[in-house]
Amino acid sequence: MPVQSKEDPLMVLYNYYTTLFRSQIKRTPRSVRLAATAALVISILSSSYGGYKWWQERSKEKAQGQRLVRRNSGLRGKGGERIIYVPKGNTTSKVIIHPTRPTTFDAHRRLFLTPPRVTRIGSGASTPAYGHGPPPQTKPGLNLAFLHQFLSLLNIMIPRFRSKETALLLSHGVFLVLRTYLSLVVARLDGAIVRDLVAGQGKSFMLGILRWLSVGTLASYTNAMIKFLQSKISIAFRTRLTRYIHDLYLNSNLNYYKLTNLDGGVGQGADQFITQDLTLFCTSAASLYSSLGKPLVDIFVFNYQLYRSLGPLALTGLLSNYFATATLLRRLSPPFGKLKAVEGKKEGDFRGLHARLIANAEEIAFYGGADVEKVYLNRSFRELRSWMEGIYNVKVRYNMLEDFILKYSWSAFGYIITSIPVYLPAWAGLNYLLESSVSAAAGTNISESSRERSHMKDFITNKRLMLSLADAGGRMMYSIKDLSELAGYTSRVYQLISTLHRVHANAYGQTHRRHSGRIELYSMADVQGTVYAGFDGVRLEDVPIVAPALYPYGGDELIESLSFVVHSGEHLLISGSNGVGKSAIARIVAGLWPVFRGLVSRPRNTGQDGIMFIPQRPYLSVGTLRDQVIYPHTEIDMREHERRDSELERILEEAKLGHLLAREGGWDTRKEWKDVLSGGEKQRMAFARLFYHEPRYAFLDEGTSAVSSDVEGLLYERCKDRGITLLTLSTRASLRKYHKSNLILGLGDEGYDWELVKIGTDAEKFSLDKEINELREKLAMVPEWEKRKKAIDEELSHVQVMDEEGSGSGSGSVELEKPDYAVREEEEGQQGQGQE
Question: What's the Cα-to-Cα distance from 772 to each of 251, 573, 768, 778, rounded to whole Å?
Fold first, then answer.
């Protein structure tokens, strides 16, 4: 029987192709070799010239990138992509951001809103309120729901086969297979080095050490590349998901507002989901490829090698051991997915309280509410700490069992398996039988010591393989816990994206009818109004003003039905007391709140030649002074509209903010503007934005409350000069002179909710006269009120204070005479009892 070759197959391939290459060179004629050399020289020169041109282009791009970073700007590509430059050391890095197509959202909607029934996501009568997508009652775990959620997210992380993520995964897979091969080489070298050491063969021993070091160098590089590629995969996954979520979260549908204020499917906000949960999910998903792929390859390869060395009995024992261990750990494993999901929610609640404290620090400081806020924070942290301590207690017991089984039990079982060729040679593997047949053919030429050294080499090799196999199997078993934690992270990210899809598609009505059939009045499933974008003006027809509640609850009606029309030049003042619905009208027209009934007509565009809304609290963005004036435009939009800095300077002068340019250091100055500008400057900056965008219509919600009256008049006149029709929401009567009509809200006592009057007409003057007469009647009643006050003071002055010495208890007591109305009530009560 022939002896099996022990030569490394890679060295065989290398020697074969080296010999073939040399033979081909010798056969090549001299003229062909000279032509090849000349072609090589020409290619080197041309590549050098190309490198020089590339260096010039790179220098230009570097200068352009630094200029755009300084101006907080970028470039816009032909396909709608945005090119930005981010600082990177002393230079800049170019980043191309491709927007997500609407067709992609439409294609993914079925994955997140209509999951298969077999997954049991969002099904059942117990969760009618959430319908599409995973409700909070969905238990994260290793089930079909987790598989559907993970594959749905995988469609976003790897959108197509020819993508960067696919190349990273393939590269990662190549290094994982290479590490498995190097593990086999190390196992064989380990056995050979021990054999040569025992035999006293110094030369072979030193050659083995050199081979060990060379293989170790390659193995170290392989391990470093595996970790590096795993990190790159995690970043690539996070980039895809973050940009997808941002495109779905920040768009013209105002999903970022509706997600928190109307839907409520993600609790206090999406920041915890996008920042922390998404990062943990991507890290866990990237490590899953390594923690499952590499051990799986190792198990197949090492099992095959051990089958050749130890025989079918050993393979059967190993497979039985895997199955028994996996079954035992699966049954005894705690629900790590659910525990991690709840921990993420509690982390989000604790973080939300801190964010709320930062956002409202000034108001809390004025009230002196530090102690109350500390109670809330401590309570939330106490709940988080208790939950995490419970998780750690569960992990301690599970880790004890896991370590005992995977380390010590498997080690003992490995020693038993490796002893099969010694104690049961008939059940040994193919390699052992081949060596035995060679020894038998050689007869007595092989000494007993050589046979022992051969046994020792085989034992060391098999032991190394068993250790590597145990490590691979241990990682497979440990990955059960990692998979459970991944299920928790997957559930959180899937919940965020499914809720965003529900808000984006407004998929409330059909969802609610499918699961419950009953819809609350003025809930998000009861939206029946119409919005017409394209009207030259602002019109409301029979629109109820309703403050919506979080889905699925019904909202509160503020005004039963409101109707008015504003055309160009018809400035409207909307007045009324606090809480009657002034700001609600602006929210409904802007699309923040739904139109439950009736028709709302408004211009199509937001900004130039459209409509613009100035909120009650001025908002200042992050960026340069230029960005504050042109917001929500960017510097790219400003260049596309051919606007110049000189025009912005004139706008600041008109808004009485011309001093800012010199005071703050120029247009490219970056500061925390909400802390730099005063209250009046913030409101005047809002008017500067109006002057820049020049909309046809503008809603001003208390836009001049911190501005002096003279500047207020100038700002209103500037708006009118630019052709801006104003709809002002305010309680200040001094603003009436800048408007033509007045919509008065909160007139419920008169039998109706609102009244629209023309300013300066006879009806409006009659209304003012009526109000003046009411005030005069109240002033005429002042003497009677003073007389009544004097009578009350006299009644309260009849106080009898008992002397402290005469009191038995040593304490004084105070008795007040009963007022007249109390005496009369007692007399009437006694008369009523007498009649009965």
Answer: 50, 21, 6, 10
Task: Say whether pLDDT at 675 is over 60.
Answer: yes
| Helix H or strand E segment including 541 | strand 538-547
Burial profile 236-256: b = 16 or more Cβ within 10 angstroms, e = fewer: bbbbbbbebbebbbebebebb
Whole-angstrom Cα distance, residue 334 to residue 144? 18
Residue 600: beta bridge partners? Answer: 531, 540
Question: What is the spatial distance between Cα 540 and Cα 531, in angstroms, rounded to a whole number?
Answer: 10
C-alpha–C-alpha distance, residues 772 and 576, integer Å: 17
Amino acid letter at 496?
Answer: L
Residue 747: per-residue pLDDT: 73
- For residue 486, the SS3 value is helix
Count CA within 13 A, CB hemisphere, residue 236. Answer: 19
Residue 302 has pLDDT above 50, yes or no: yes
Quick one: pLDDT at residue 806? 47
Per-residue pLDDT band for 121 (boundaries 50, 70, 90) equals: low
* pLDDT value at residue 649: 93
Mean pLDDT comparison of 60-74, 641-655, 761-775, highest-scoring range: 641-655
DSSP state letter for 817: P
3-state secondary structure of 86: strand
- Of the ranges 114-128, 187-201, 409-423, the best mean pLDDT one: 187-201
Answer whether 542's CB lies under 8 Å from 599's CB: yes
Cα separation, 661 vs 490, in Å, equals: 49
Give mean pLDDT, residues 356-363. 78
822 Cβ contact partners less than 8 Å away, ≥ 6 residues apart:
none
Give CA torsion, residues 335, 341, 343, 346, to 10 deg.
-140
Q: What angle do CA 130, 133, 138 make, to 5 degrees?
A: 80
In order, the DSSP letters of 323-346 are HHHHHHHHHH---HHHHHHHHHHH
> In this prediction, what percent of the chain has a pLDDT beyond 70?
73
Query: 């590096």: which residue's tokens?
Result: 228
State the DSSP H helix or E strand holding residue 214, giving kind and residue range, or none if neither.
helix 202-249
Q: Which amino acid is at 605?
A: N
- Write down the pLDDT at residue 824: 52
